[in-house]
Design brief:
By secondary structure, this protein is of the alpha/beta class. It is 34% helix and 18% strand. The protein is built from 20 helices and 22 strands. The protein has a five-stranded parallel sheet, with helices on both faces. Strand 2 and strand 3 form a beta hairpin. Helix 3 packs across helix 4 and helix 11 packs across helix 18. The longest helix is centred in the C-terminal third of the chain and has 19 residues. The N and C termini lie far apart (65 Å).
Length: 615
């Protein structure tokens, strides 16, 4: 058997694995020692060209390493495999540890048996006898050094240190938590276009889309404002890996999603996929790792910003969450930051449920009322509360305001016949002004927000207010535009959009057909978003795609949805401020899901369950 050097495509080589005896040097170390070595400069030139060098030799490790040190070349080799076991399995493990593919690796050995054994274990591996060396020298003479600072070699040394550290842990998960991995998503793609172009064309194993494009096409993509794009940088306690990934999302579909092989096994691709909100992804060809709608790995960014104190939201900046259960459920997964929460609350005086202060008719109308007019609303309308007027949403230092569109078509709108003032309250299908419904309100057969309505008060309300119905989608969008005019120009508004599929188990007639209303609202808000960069969208239709996403009505969803929404908000915060809030881990989400399941079984009554809930 022999090898054919014509089968070697030098332009595809990322790694050369060298045998030592009678290959890298002349002589046999265990039989009298090496007699000469003419390949020292070649290995150095390969390294400066960005081609990594390793060793797979049958020798005693201490003696072989000492020889390499004496030659002054030891530091140019990484992931050295030196022992007396068969080379095929060792090379397979070496390539795996380095995150490469056999098709980008050349193994040089003077022993034909070793070469073909290596190829047997590594399909696609390039193999050659030492007579390939003149071709390597000729190739390098014709090319300018691509890595004059030995950056790639340094990065593989970091990988080697990490691999050595991994062996000290009993399990991989414990090791990953120890790495202090930090992932940063950046959006100034134009400044890093050359590195992005290189990633698009050099990555394979973690290139999910494999959409190879020209530099001109890449420039057009980056300039397209309708495409969300960003690059990914990674560092950990072992070192800085630099820019290792790139993504581009158009119409909620990934057209580019790729990562360098040096991130294999760190969960970076899953972290980024979760941060993007799990957009549609069509995988092209084979990849060594898959992504799913699972939570982001919580060992990533567990200690982010520890070495970069400038990545903090300005203490004078506010993030305001204003809304009902959809916002409060989402905020559960954000545990720190400059957040102001304005959620549904219980009024202290009347012990009633105050949710309607989150409706646009109310917060827009109340803003211009005098103190006397506000007090009159509290005195006259038993469902109101004196604290409902308090809000920070209009403050000058609000960077991001998060509100929901789903409360808008839900509440009924009433107009004072004398003053013209409007107020939103209660389910629109049960008007407080309808005399036929008064017995049901008095007996709490309808939604009352924990208010106690008397016949006398209902008669007064019916005489002084007229029912206008619910806001139409057009009116809801008009109120959103009015809000943008009132808010400081430095404030962006993120709107939660409702589901566009029905909940099959709906029993509340107030929600019948609501998905059609949401579809029209969403269409208008998507147009508003396209026309105004201050309008951001938290579109739950990215995740609410089937019945299993719902809980008990169209407005209530599984915890995973709220977790995804929290990450979406965090992305907005990062784009606006350059920093992120701290979110609770995927492990916390799994614990809460488990708690929900156990609660349905009755086990929550046991001492063991109460202990678990308090963890």
């Amino acid at each position: 058997m022999s090898t054919n050097t014509n089968e070697v495509d030098i332009s595809k080589i990322k790694l050369i694995i060298w045998d030592l005896d009678e290959t890298f040097w002349e002589g046999t170390l265990s039989e009298g020692g090496l007699t000469a070595c003419n390949n020292i400069e070649l290995v150095k030139r390969l390294s400066y060209d960005g081609i990594i060098n390793s060793v797979c030799s049958k020798n005693d490790y201490p003696k072989a390493e000492k020889a390499l040190i004496d030659l002054g070349i030891n530091d140019f080799f990484v992931f050295k495999s030196i022992d007396w076991t068969p080379k095929g399995p060792r090379i397979k493990q070496l390539i795996k540890d380095m995150g490469l593919r056999p098709t980008n690796v050349l193994f040089i050995d003077d022993n034909i048996v070793n070469l073909h054994e290596a190829r047997h274990y590594n399909e696609g591996l390039m193999i050659a006898e030492p007579d390939i060396i003149p071709q390597l020298n000729a190739f390098l003479k014709a090319a300018d050094p691509k890595d004059p600072t030995l950056k790639r070699l340094g990065q593989y040394k970091v990988m080697q240190a990490k691999q050595e550290s991994r062996s000290e842990f009993d399990d991989n998960l414990s090791f990953l938590y120890s790495t202090q991995t930090q992932v940063t998503i950046s959006y100034d793609c134009e400044t890093e276009i050359q590195r992005i172009f290189e990633l698009i064309h050099r990555t394979n194993q973690l290139n999910f889309t494999k959409e190879r494009i020209s530099m001109e096409e890449l420039r057009e993509l980056i300039a397209n404002k309708d495409i969300k794009k960003g690059y990914v940088s990674v560092k950990d306690k072992f070192g800085d890996y630099g820019i290792v990934g790139f993504f581009a999302v158009e119409n909620n579909k990934l057209i580019h999603f790729l990562f360098s092989c040096r991130t294999i096994g760190q969960g970076v691709e899953q972290y980024v996929y979760a941060q993007l909100g799990y957009p549609e992804l069509t995988i092209n060809g084979d990849v060594v790792s898959k992504v799913s709608e699972a939570p982001a790995p919580d060992w990533i960014n567990a200690n982010c910003n520890l070495d970069n104190p400038t990545q903090k939201i300005n203490s004078d900046s506010k993030i305001v969450f204003k809304g009902a259960c959809d916002l409060s459920c989402m905020s559960e997964y954000i545990v720190s930051g400059s957040i102001v929460e304005e959620f549904t609350y219980m009024g202290l005086e009347r012990r009633n449920n105050i949710e309607h202060h989150n409706h646009s008719v109310n917060y827009l109308g109340w803003r211009s009322l005098s103190d006397d007019a506000r007090q009159r609303l509290v005195d006259d309308l038993v469902f109101n509360d004196k604290d409902m007027f308090e809000t920070h949403m209009f403050d000058d230092n609000v960077t991001l305001l998060i509100v929901s569109t789903m409360i808008e078509p839900n509440l009924g709108i009433y107009r004072n016949k004398n003053t013209g003032e409007k107020i939103a309250f209660g389910e629109y299908i049960h008007p407080l002004t309808d005399k036929n419904l008064w017995p049901d309100f008095i007996n709490n057969n309808f939604y009352t927000a924990d208010n106690r309505f008397s016949l006398e008060w209902l008669e007064w309300f019916g005489n002084n207010y007229e029912f206008l119905g619910a806001l139409s989608p057009v009116e809801i969008c008009q109120n959103a535009k009015r809000l943008l005019e009132i808010l400081p120009k430095s404030t962006s508004v993120a709107y939660i959009l409702g589901p566009e599929i029905p909940f099959d188990g709906e029993t509340n007639s107030n929600y019948f057909g609501r998905e059609k209303v949401y579809s029209e609202i969403n269409r208008l808000f998507r147009e508003l978003h396209a026309a105004n960069p201050r309008v951001l969208l938290i579109d739950v239709n990215r995740w609410v795609k089937k019945q299993s996403a719902f809980t008990n009505n169209i407005n209530h969803w599984q915890r995973q949805i709220y977790y995804n929404m929290a990450n979406c908000v965090n992305d907005f915060i990062y784009e606006l401020t350059g920093a992120k809030l701290t979110t609770k881990s995927g492990a916390y989400l799994l614990q809460r899901k488990f708690a929900d399941r156990v609660a349905k079984t009755g086990l929550f009554k046991t001492k063991l369950w109460r202990k678990f809930r308090n963890l």
